[in-house]
Structures are given as structure tokens and as C-alpha cells.
UniProtKB/TrEMBL annotation:
Record's protein name: Shikimate kinase
Required co-factors: Mg(2+)
Its biological purpose: Catalyzes the specific phosphorylation of the 3-hydroxyl group of shikimic acid using ATP as a cosubstrate.
Record-stated family: Belongs to the shikimate kinase family.
């Protein structure tokens, strides 16, 4: 959350001359409401089912840069679908998350004690991110352009 996946994803797609897609945006467009509203109205399990379907569809339809929501890797089938793709884990520490997002309540999983919950989410997910990623790029204290270049370098891709 707040790691810059949308900004970096768009820059990366631009550098590579390919399309950009975000599964969170796909869910919002299909459902006609925000992710926070889905969480409140239907709960996390319902959202995760929508997310799983959105990732499956996007992987089948899209050949460019694809940004996934932070919880997408919680699903074992989604992790299996990501195998063989060039997945990059954009990381950051909690102090950076505070600077970037303020860890505000607009993020449904961080509504109470955001710093503690962010740390707990990362502890629960980090190994899953590392499991699916072919590269990890730290984003702390770096501009989106610097992160994008690091992703290109990590994947050994040339800019167009």
C-alpha cells in the first residue's frame, strides 16, 4: 500500500512502450464502487474473490505492465498464475509508508492502529511477495523515476 505501484507501473509501461493495467482499477470499474466500499459492504473474503478473478482475467488478456493489489498474493492459485511472469516486488519500510500515505483510514485494512497493522500485514505477506517475485526493488526515499530505472535494471530490460 502506497509503495508507488501505479506511478511506477505507468512509467515502466511508458519506458517499455507497452500498455499499463491495474487490477484494483479493474475491480472498481466492474463494481462501480471503491475498494473500501466493497470491504465495508461485503467484507474482505468477497473482495478477495473479486481480486482473484480480476488477476486471472488480466493475466489472460494483458501483455503489458500489470499492477496487482497488495493482497493478491494471499491466494495460492494467484501465486501459481504468477509463476513464469516477471514479477517485481516493490518494497518499503513503515516509516516511508507513513510519509507517503499517512496510513490513513481510507485504507480498509489499516483503520485501527495503522502502523501496527501495516507491520503485521507486511510480516504476513513479505514471504509471499518474495516467493512470486523475480526481483525486489526498494522504493524508500527514491523518486518514481529512480524506482522505474531500478526495475528496468533488475529485469535487465532496455528502455525504448
Amino acid at each position: 500500500m502506497g509503495v508507488g505501484k501505479s506511478t511506477v507501473g505507468r512509467l515502466l509501461a511508458e519506458h517499455l512502450g507497452v500498455g499499463y493495467r491495474d487490477t484494483d482499477d479493474d475491480i472498481v470499474a466492474a463494481q462501480g464502487r471503491t475498494i473500501a466500499e466493497i470491504f465495508v459492504d461485503e467484507g474482505e473474503p468477497a473482495f478477495r474473490a473479486l481480486e482473484k478473478a480480476a488477476v486471472r482475467t488480466a493475466l489472460a488478456e494483458h501483455d503489458g505492465v500489470l499492477a496487482l493489489g497488495g493482497g493478491a498474493v494471499l491466494d495460492e492459485e494467484t501465486r501459481a498464475l504468477l509463476a513464469g511472469h516477471r514479477v517485481v516486488y516493490l518494497s518499503m519500510e513503515v516509516e516511508e509508508a507513513v510519509k507517503r500515505t499517512g496510513l490513513n483510514v481510507a485504507r480498509p485494512l489499516l483503520a485501527v492502529n495503522p502502523r501496527k497493522q501495516w507491520r503485521e500485514l507486511m510480516e504476513a505477506r513479505r514471504h509471499l511477495y518474495e516467493q512470486v517475485a523475480v526481483a525486489m526493488v526498494a522504493t524508500d526515499g527514491r523518486t518514481p523515476e529512480e524506482v522505474t530505472q531500478s526495475v528496468l535494471d533488475a529485469l535487465e530490460l532496455k528502455q525504448r
